[in-house]
Amino acid sequence: METAIEVSDLVINRGKREVLHGLTCTIPRGSITGLLGPSGSGKTTLMRAVVGVQLVASGRVSVLGEPAGSPALRHRIGYLTQAPSVYDDLTVRENARYFASLYKLGHADADAAIEAVGLGQAAHQLVANLSGGQRSRASLACAIVGRPEVLVLDEPTVGQDPVLRDDLWARFRTMAADGTTILVSSHVMDEANRCDRLLLIRDGHLIGDDTPAAIKTTAGTDDLDEAFLRIIRQQEKAAA
Amino acid sequence: MSPHTLASTIGRIVRQLRHDRRTVGLIIVVPLLLLTLLYYMFDGGLLFDRIALVMLGIFPFIIMFLITSIAMLRERTSGTLERLFTTPVGKLDLLFGYGIAFGLVAAAQAAVAAGLAYWLFDLDTAGSAWLVILIAVANAVLGVALGLLCSAFARTEFQAVQFMPVVALPQILLCGLFVARDSMAGWLQVISDVLPLSYSVEALTEVGRHADPTGTMWRDLGIVVGAIILALVLGAATLRRRTA
């Protein structure tokens, strides 16, 4: 399978602390890859490196064959930050139209992105007046509006009701089927099961990189939470 | 920088402001209230002519400095700036977007304030009111440029507002409004000479005294434009696509 994202020996410092310690992984094109790990494990930092806004101490990240963050990639990548990054003092539609305009796309594309995240009814509302879940979907609309080839989503379904979450995952699945490469971080193990591949990160180290089924088989359990736990215990035993 | 992205960025910034009616009201009304205060303080005499003229240049500087530093700080802290840097938007699209959008607002503000001063309060200047507005807008853009720059050194809105007295007050004290610049102590003159507001105040005073635009006025305006460009270039250097 063709590679969309290639990370090799990536070392990143935030402040005086090293948060990623020589991480290496590849992410195939047109797949949904889940990034799993406890809070503070380096998920967001890795995602920031992929979209090219993170200062890198050493190592290499390439996306679609170009170094991460290179100008040519800026038309081809979409990024959803963990906290919704939309303008509070604009309506949902004005936000989507502004981000669409950066990709030289028009109003119809903006409206399509708003519909895709289920905010059609709230399009005329100021983001400041939306609920937390709606706000994060407004932010998602702005991430997908440019029809990116690589979509990096930092916890996109936090605070969404189960039906909407299911709709969003169906949407991600359709996008992946159309060739979009999706890298998505999550805390919810039930979502991890929907990914094609999983990257398990702990304390800035990659401790697992396989399909959800294979990870469960290797760990000898049907439960991903439990599998994650067993992998950590095994590694700790190996290290000791 | 692309004209298309620049235009939509200007549109976006103006739209943000339009949803905030109270801020728009304050931008327009506060200078009018302060001018009214000045008018009655000085009984509309000669001193009013001198001070109101200078204030027409200082209000837009202070107000645009404050608004821009907060707006830019919000871009930095809300994550919108980080996201913008993953899109095709250029740094100059953002810097000029803010400069032009708030420059337009400042032009409206200066026109209304000058209108009140000239028609209702009989402000008397030898030169044209249009030159006064032009210099006021240049001052506003100077405020925008310095606000963009200073926002890089603030982490919170509390810190950002405190840059206002740091940046604006020394310039107002030393611009020649309170003590003539040539009668200040030598070291104060040196400081006054490197502060851009000294030149815009001198330019306004020239408009007050001479019927036609003078060479000194154009030179001063040129210096203010130079300071704007310098602040924007420094501001661009503080906008980093990659951060730790």
UniProtKB/TrEMBL annotation, chain A:
Keyword field: ATP-binding, Nucleotide-binding
Pfam families xrefs: ABC_tran
All residue ranges annotated as the ABC transporter domain in the record: 5-228
Alphabetized PANTHER family for the sequence: ABC TRANSPORTER G FAMILY MEMBER 20 ISOFORM X1, ATP-BINDING CASSETTE, SUB-FAMILY H, MEMBER 1
Entry-linked CDD domains: ABC_DR_subfamily_A
Residue ranges of coiled coil: none
Keyword Nucleotide-binding: yes
Methyltransferase found in the keyword field: no
SUPFAM superfamilies, A to Z: P-loop containing nucleoside triphosphate hydrolases
UniProt-recorded name of the protein: Multidrug ABC transporter ATP-binding protein
Signal peptide range in chain numbering: none
Tree of life domain: Bacteria
Entry's Gene Ontology molecular function annotations: ATP binding
TrEMBL record, chain B:
Coarse class of the protein's main subcellular location: membrane
Pfam families xref list: ABC2_membrane
Domain ABC transmembrane type-2: 22-242
Places the protein is found: Cell membrane
Keywords, in A-Z order: Antibiotic resistance, Cell membrane, Membrane, Transmembrane, Transmembrane helix, Transport
Transmembrane residue ranges: 23-42, 54-73, 94-121, 127-149, 161-180, 221-239
Membrane topology of the entry: Multi-pass membrane protein
Family per similarity comment: Belongs to the ABC-2 integral membrane protein family.
Name of the protein: Transport permease protein
The organism of origin for this protein: Asanoa siamensis
